[in-house]
Design a protein that fits this description.
Layout lengths: L1 H4 L16 H9 L7 E3 L8 H10 L4 E4 L12 E3 L3 H14 L16 H7 L3
Parallel strand pairs: 1-2, 2-3
């Protein structure tokens, strides 16, 4: 793994898509004296997302957010990383085509955030 080349260790934890309080996991990670920063994809569940985002704003470690936009009511900003999923699919299909494949199949599932999550994030 690339992290080992630099003497780093990656610690991964997950909450799946359940309404598990993420702050407990974040606290556990942040209290590790060797932790250098957090890379997170916070839940969009309206029951726990506000508490998670609030905790992230108060975190003393550097935080990078993956595939999420912070709620509009949140002060400040975060470093973030977003991927271009359609471009990745296109590159994959081009790769298969270049190797002689002429048919492909896919199974995509897109789950929209619940309306209450969107409205709670917008501060309404």
């Amino acid at each position: 793994m690339a992290a080992e080349q630099y003497g780093l260790e990656i610690v991964a934890k997950e909450t799946s898509y359940e309404t598990f309080p993420e702050v407990d996991i974040l606290e556990d990670l942040a209290t590790d004296p060797q932790m250098l920063g957090l890379i997170v994809a916070p839940s969009i569940e309206p029951d726990i997302a506000p508490e998670t985002w609030q905790w992230l704003t108060e975190c003393q470690l550097p935080v990078t957010v993956l595939e999420r936009h912070p709620p509009q009511w949140l002060p400040g900003s975060f470093d973030s990383v977003h991927t271009d999923h359609p471009a990745g699919v296109r590159r994959g299909l081009q790769h298969f085509r270049q190797h002689g494949h002429h048919r492909g199949g896919g199974d995509w599932l897109w789950v929209a955030p619940p309306p209450q999550a969107i409205s709670s994030w917008a501060g309404s």
